[in-house]
User: Fold this.
Amino acid sequence: MSGAAIGDAARLWLYALSGIWLLAVLDQILAARAAGGMEAGTLGRPWRAALRALFKERRRLRGSDGLLCRFCPTLLLVLAAALTALAADPPAAPGSLVAVAGLYVLVGVLDFALGWAAGSGYALLGAGRALALLLAVLAPLLLALGGVSVANAELGLAGQTGHPLALTQPLGAVCFTLSAMILSGWGPVRGPRGTDLAGGIELALTGVPLLIWRLARYLLLLATALLTAGLYFAAGPWLPAGGLLGAALLLALSHRLPLLEPRAFLSRAWLVLLPLAVINLGWALLLGAGPGAG
Amino acid sequence: MGMTPRQRLFRSAFSQLRVFPVLGWGGRELWQRLLGVAGINPCQSPDDCDLFVLAGEIPSQWSRRLSTLLESAAQPCSVLWLRPAWQCESPAGLPIKHTVSPSRIEALRAATLADELLEHDDEERPRPQFERAPTEAPVTGGTSLVLGPHFPYLPSGLQLELRLDGERVLSCEGVHNAFPLTPLVGADPVKIGPGNLPALKILLGQKSSISALESARWYSHLSWMADFLMLAGFAGAASQLRPLRRLPDRMAFRRILTRVEPRLKAMCRGVGRISPGTVQRLDLRGPVARASGVAVDSRQEDSAYRSLGFEPVLESDGDAWARWSVRARECLQSLDLIARARQCPASVPEAPRGAFRHQSSVFVAPTTALYPLLETRLGGNEWSAALLFIASLDLCPQEAALQ
Assistant:
């Protein structure tokens, strides 16, 4: 490995860790504001939460699948890191858009697997939600990415040049961002980690695995924002800053928007989000076939 | 002696404690007071809590179940007992590290409790035995799940056997009260909470005033509203509502409601609709009956209330939103009555959940009449709607256990 590659990797890690920390702090601030005001020490809470997880033992519920419970958090972190790497430093390799879609699908599958493995009724309900949400947002996500590939005339992430795609495909930008945000475990829906499930799929996790799982969630949000900024806003050299800003915006939206019940979200996903994604793809094909295309 | 670096880190890590409550007789009041202490954060699952709070008098029958829950909690985890105001046995067989009397709750400091954890952390302790039974077992036609008896923000002691198909509740196959049956005569009225106290006094032939009865209603309704908001995901509004129970402030109350009600209304509209016919058939009382448009309120029969121009608060839709609205409007009505009635005596035992009464010399609490609704009306609801329906009934298993 060359020195430049090592430097790039180190910069990426530094960026990802700073992003996670900034998002965790912002999350605490928004939660504290919603709870009636900031207390002293709110900014240090993410550190203390991480420390707490290090002191807490890793415990296994009876009836749970120990192997899955142990590996799901690590795998999620690997997936989140891969998505962030793809988004922050888009490779020229063809097919990287397909890789992005595949990684998001795997994130949804991991949510389901962890809920299934926990051996608890509430976690099982969370697993059901994870599967339902995956099925609901998968098609809009793929169609939105399809629109991007049509506009760029390739399946790579690095193909975009010129004007921001959000100007010609605003619907695609909305569909992609919302779908990816939901799969990342954020957004305006009572998801698999809902308060009404007493923790849901996270029930089986304590200590370090829970810490890893939550770090991965922040990283996924950052990756989603980076992808939106890169694919739809042609952020170019401003991509790192745009990613952080976008992630902060998405986090604020997650706190501000009313939470939809899973069934209500599913019906909206099928009746609104999916048709919008289809219209966006049709529009992208029309633009692609228009005069001057190709 | 100074602290080691590890101890300093430990103390910093646990300066915000995640706390799981188990509420016994009179426990709800103590728990809601503890939530006002800085550094105390409610936790939804016992598995990842730092502090297990036993609040009130814990029935001895719960010891085995609680031991099992404690064994499966990730260490370090300590046990705090919020002792009730009356004399009672400490919870048997549980490793209680800290006992706090009601007068000392507000003086608690999260850092002091974290030090208890630190001591606990230094101990050699056996690995958890994972004795907890799985909560679900596959059965034909759905998955069965036992909800409660310590599910956060639902009434402590209420245990439901549910059958689910995905998120949809197919049926409720059993309703159990984990509180043991207790004779009313000889029981300390404080046990069933300050909200019920004035009405119970009247039922037992003691004196009480309109002011006391309405203050108790304000207190009880606000406690319920705070729990309901927590369940619905409005933790911020809940924490702002809780202090108003002891320091009534009409403007602040209205402000909080104005902020949350549009979203809450959207969630609760049409959830758990109860028709006037069902109210009459099951002999329902209190806000649940009045939310269905049935004017069941014994205060109408009290001349002192009549002289104050009292009219029962009614809604017609009979859903969870109507039940919220009735209680919210009753809160404001109670403040009016308190201001005008002064020490005017009351003669009717209209408790916040409905009138207490004797039927064939047996005490019948309003909650008892609501239990059949759970078996007949939970089926067909989505999971979150089912939880909102249960919470909207404001059940009190403690009062239902009195005979």
Q: What stands out?
A: Chain B has a mean pLDDT of 86. The longest strand of chain B covers residues 168-177.
